[in-house]
Amino acid sequence: MASWVQKVAAAAIALALVAGPTASAQPDLRDYLTQQLDNQEPDNAERGFAHAVGPLSGVLSSGASAELPLTLRAGQEIRIVGVCDQACDDLDLRVVNPRGEILALDTRGNARPVVDLRAEMFGQHTIEVGMVDCRAPRCRFAVNVYTR
């Protein structure tokens, strides 16, 4: 009689054989978003920016938005890069200071917004991510923050 460990191992192997090719043929969406952000790295490095935070990610339907908190120091130079999945046609970014004032925004009709800014004050800022156009019920997005 097989032990429970052998039964579990046999079940796992059987599942891998059945699901393996199908599962590996589908690209992982997180990998897609990470690759899109990684594609921006050379340009950011060329401009003197170093990766600081991210990826910060989420899921939004068309017309919805999310707020991501970000603590900044006065005088700090920041670049924020956003990307979204293949069903997304337009993603917007806004950065709001602790007083509620918009410091920078990218509301152009694109799926890869970029905002550059210099923080005016220390404190909790907010990255507002807006999913303007998503052709699916929900789209995934990811954001990286760079400093110099």
UniProtKB/TrEMBL annotation:
Signal peptide: 1-25
Keywords associated with the record: Signal
Entry annotated with the keyword Signal: yes
Protein's UniProt name: Uncharacterized protein
UniProt source species: Candidatus Viadribacter manganicus
Taxonomic path: Bacteria, Pseudomonadati, Pseudomonadota, Alphaproteobacteria, Hyphomonadales
